[in-house]
Design a protein that fits this description.
Number of domains: 1
CATH architecture: 3-Layer(aba) Sandwich
CATH topology: Rossmann fold
Strand order of the largest sheet: 6-7-8-3-9-10-12-11
GO molecular function, one term: ATP binding
Structural class: alpha/beta
Number of helices: 10
Keywords: ATP-binding, Cell membrane, Membrane, Nucleotide-binding, Transport
Bound molecules: adenosine-5'-triphosphate, magnesium ion
Membrane topology: Peripheral membrane protein
GO cellular component, one term: plasma membrane
Shape: globular
Family: Belongs to the ABC transporter superfamily.
Length: 322
């Protein structure tokens, strides 16, 4: 059975004429111990999807569909169960570690907190585990007594990973865990995260705008555009032989891992993703698509099998109804 199964997930911020449909009918699965990358330009709904996996969205978000973690629906879980699941079932690593860590508490105490609360660990056992976790992420255990501002960006991100590992989760969701860091440190942190999840048989959902980074670290890749998955398949196939014109544009835009210039304006891809509150009719990518046909202005193609284990939502995909 899949560890994570997302079925027909829709997420809308707000209501009425100003409603923002940020996620529109996402279906995804992650098998135990596997790594799924989710790519897409800014505003495509990646963080909204990631936050939903741990039910961390603001109250203005309305959701429908299912998010099953080990068969249990995260969206309908009772609060007590959800709190337990958030650490031992699935945990999250965010981009801005400075904002996610509490500035007035020592990092060791912050790593220890979930152990004390969710594992009922004794203070001595928690201290020992914190030292071991810091060593796993490549920091000396003595750094437990540091405050976040005393650490570098890369060290803070290592602390975030230690926190995410604290209660032995089955799934880690990493939302652009390295974007704020310089390219060398990014590569180190990603390699560390990848090594730790592989060694500990943890599933990973890794989010990035950068397809090259994901192709290097994940088994499978999903490409999001305007709130939908437009392509999903084996990571190398999606990166080397994308079936959707948007997937092809993204892989061409990120020839090099962590190229910061590509972040805001992927090379060779004119224009911007649409405003989710004012989506174009038909395929939402058609205004930017070099291969667009007349039918793309009115038909929004479903995600269909383009090759074994590889799906794409494009009228040019063999098997697509249009
Ligand atoms: N709390 C919110 N209230 C209203 N709209 C929101 C909220 N959070 C996100 N949105 C909107 O939802 C859409 C998707 O945003 P999201 O943050 O999921 O995108 P993203 O793919 O993570 O982008 P980025 O690469 O910039 O992180 C955007 O149009 C965004 O403006
Ligand atoms: Mg985001």
């Amino acid at each position: 059975m899949s560890l994570l199964t997302i079925r027909d997930l829709h997420i809308t911020y707000g209501a009425g004429p100003t409603a923002v449909p940020a996620v529109r009918g996402v279906d995804l699965t992650v098998d135990p111990g596997r790594k799924l990358g989710i790519a897409g330009e800014s505003g495509c709904g990646k963080s909204t999807l990631a936050l939903a996996m741990l039910r961390l969205l603001p109250a203005t978000a309305r959701l429908s569909g299912e998010i099953l973690l080990d068969g249990e629906d995260v969206l309908t879980m009772k609060w007590g169960r959800l709190r337990a699941v958030r650490w031992a079932g699935a945990s999250i690593v965010f981009q801005g570690a400075m904002h996610s860590l509490n500035a007035v508490h020592r990092v060791g105490d912050q790593i220890a907190e979930p152990l004390l609360v969710h594992r009922q660990a004794s203070a001595a056992a928690a201290r020992k585990r914190v030292g071991a976790l810091l060593e796993q992420v490549g920091l000396p255990p003595s750094r437990a007594s540091a405050y976040p501002h005393e650490l570098s960006g890369g060290q803070r991100q290592r602390v975030m990973i230690a926190m995410a590992l604290a209660c032995d989760p089955r799934l880690i969701v990493a939302d652009e865990p390295t974007t704020a860091l310089d390219v060398m440190i990014q590569a180190q942190i990603l390699r560390l995260l990848e090594r730790l999840v592989t060694e500990q048989d943890i599933s990973l959902v890794m989010i990035s705008h950068d397809l090259a980074v994901l192709a290097d670290t994940c088994d499978r890749l999903a490409v999001m555009y305007a709130g939908r998955i437009v392509e999903e398949g084996p990571a190398r196939d999606v990166y080397d032989a994308a079936r959707h014109p948007y997937g092809r544009a993204l892989s061409a835009a990120f020839p090099r891992i962590g190229d910061p210039a590509s972040r805001l304006a992927p090379r060779g891809l004119p224009g911007d993703p649409p405003d989710p509150a004012a989506l174009p009719p038909g395929c939402t990518f058609h205004p930017r698509c070099p291969s667009a046909l007349e039918t793309c202005r009115s038909e929004d193609p479903p995600l269909v099998q383009a090759a074994p284990g590889h799906r794409a939502a494009c009228v040019l995909t063999p098997g697509s109804p249009a």
